[in-house]
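Researcher: I'd like a structural prediction for the single chain below. Treat it as a standalone chain; there are no partners to consider.
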Amino acid sequence: MSDNNDILPCVIIPMQDGQLLLPNVSIAEVVDFSISEAEASSPDWLVGWLEWRGVSLPVVSYDAANGNKPVVPGGHRGRVVVLNTIGQSHEKMPFLALVTQGIPSQVRIGPDQVREIEGAKGSADQLLVEVDGDTAVIPDLEYLEKLAHEAA
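Model: Treating it as a single chain, here is the predicted structure.
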């Protein structure tokens, strides 16, 4: 059993074909789905723009960033997750946004609850893991930041 110092507060983010796993510190805020649509000539992964705290953030479709069909949620379950950036473009773009396919949930994970697994990964996937028996993806945040920077 893990001691409390090894517990990491995380967020599970529902996507079209699975779920993402991110530490809480990477998430600035989860907001209702309310974006302006991207232009028709925009890349598939650019869903639109989120006006958030006085800045316009590119909203990325994780599914499309992985080469799958972009999915835009409808109804009351769609959310946008605002992420803190960590890469070289952080000074110019401290945040980016991801569209979700449901409401993210918080989990507390110890080292004995997560393990790396083998499987096909997309361009936006960093690592495939199993968390308490469920499969999740740890996204490649630097790749997503690069895409968002291209859109800005």
